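so the lab meeting is tmrw and i was supposed to have these ready like two days ago... anyway. pasting both below. for each one the top line is the aa sequence and the line under it is the C-alpha cells. i havent really looked at them closely yet so no promises
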Amino acid sequence: MIRKKTLDNKQDVFAGTNFGEVKTSKPAWYQTTAKYGRPNRRKSIWQVLNTLVPYGFLWALMIVTVKLEYPYWITLALALMAGGMLVRVFILFHDCCHGSFFASRRANTILGYVAGILTFTAFEDWRRVHNRHHVTAGDLDRRGVGDIWTMTTEEYLAAPLRTRFAYRFYRNPVILLGPGSLLLFLFLQRFPNKGAGTKERRSVHYTNLAILLIVGIATWTIGLPAYVSIQLPIIVIAGSVGLWLFYIQHQFENTYWVRHESWDPMRVALEGSSYFKLPKILQWFTGNIGLHHIHHVRPSIPNYNLQECQNQFPEFQAVKAITLRTSLRSLQLGLFDPENHKLVSFRSLAAARVGKRIACE
C-alpha cells in the first residue's frame, strides 16, 4: 500500500506521494535512474548564464530598435529569439519547482522566484499545483489541477449545450494557444490557485509587486509604449509555445487515462507522458522537456541530465516518439474515449454516433 504523504519539491510518485491507496510497483531498472537525479552545480550555473544573459541582451537590443525607431519587424524578429529564450527560462523555473536544478533548496527558491517574475508565474503557487499534477496525471477521477481541461465522450454528450460550446471554444487550438496563453500568463496567474496556502498566496503577491516594479521602472526609463511593444510579443511567443509543449506532453491519441482504482504512475510516465522528439536546436530552447516520459518517471532529474538518461535506458527509447508533424494531429483531439482508451476528435465522435444510428435503423 502507498501511504499518504505531503507534497514537496522533491516529490516522487513511486515513493509514496500519490494520494489514496494505489497499488503500484517499481521496475527493476527504476533505482538505476537515481544517479541522473543529482544536480551538477557547474552545469546549473552554465545554464543560468547561457539563458539569462542572452535573454537580457536580446531585451537590450529590442530597446535600441524601439528607441531608434527601426522598422518594427526587426523588433519582432528579436522577440522571436527572446521568446525562445523565455521558454528556456521557464524550464529552469520548472526544475527549481521540483528542487532538481540545484542541490540547495535555497538556491532553487531564489532562482525560482527570479525566473518566475520573468515568466509572470509565482514560484510557490505554481510549484504546489504542478507537483499535484505529477500525482494525478492520467487519473480520470482526479482531473482539474495543473492540467488541460479534458472531458470524456460520455461527459461531453451528457453536458448541456452551453458547456459543450464553452469546451469546444476552449479546446480550439487558435483560442487555447493564442488568447488562452495570454489570459493565463497575464491575468489568471495574478491570482492564487484554489487551495493555495499562506506561502503560496504570498508568492503570488510578491511576484505581482515585482512585475509592477519592473513596469514602473520601464515606464520611467523607456516609456510604457516601448515596454509593451517589447514585452507583449515576447510573452505571446513564449506563452503560446510553452502552452503547446504542456499540451502535447499528455494530449496525444493513445495517451493513458484510467479510473483511480486502476491508476498506475509508471504507466502514466511511460504511456501517458509523451516523448516529443524535437530538432536539436528546439530541444535546446525547450530544455529537453520533450523527454517528458523520463521526467514523470523521476521528476528529480534536472533537464540537463534527461538526454543522457534517455540514451542509457532501452525502456525509455522504446516509447514511441511524437514528432513536430505528428504533434499537429494531437491538436485536433479533444475528448477521451474510455471505451477505446484513446483521445478522439469531435468530428470522429459525431461520425461514430451517426454510424451507430444508421446501424440501429
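ok protien two:
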Amino acid sequence: MSSPSQQHVHSASCGHRTVTHEGHVDYLTHGHLEHQEGGRITEHVIAVSAQNPVRCTPGYHDGHSADHHHGSACGHEAVPHGDHIDYLSAGHLHFPHGDHCDDHGALALN
C-alpha cells in the first residue's frame, strides 16, 4: 500500500517520530506508520499482541488529565493499531472508550 507522503524521504533527521516495529524502524506521520526501504514506502500497523493488547482499562489516565478527549485535534499523534486508531501519550497507546481512555500498551519509540 502506498502512503500519502510517497515523495518524502524518511531519515534520522526528517522530523518524524521513529518507532521500532517488528525488527526495523518505522516513521509515524499524519496518522500513518510508514516503513521506507529500497526507495519505497509501505504502511504498517501495530499488531494487537501481548505488548499492545486491546483491553478496557477504566480509570487509566497516564500522561494527560482525566477530562482530555483524544481525537483528530487533541494534539497527540495518531497511531494505527489493529483495526482502529490509538493516540500516543506518555509513550503509550491510548484509545478513547466511553468516559475513559484505554491503555493499549507501550510503543517502542526511538
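from a quick look at the 2nd one: The chain has a mean pLDDT of 87. Residues 61 and 101 are 7 Å apart (CA to CA). will dig more after coffe
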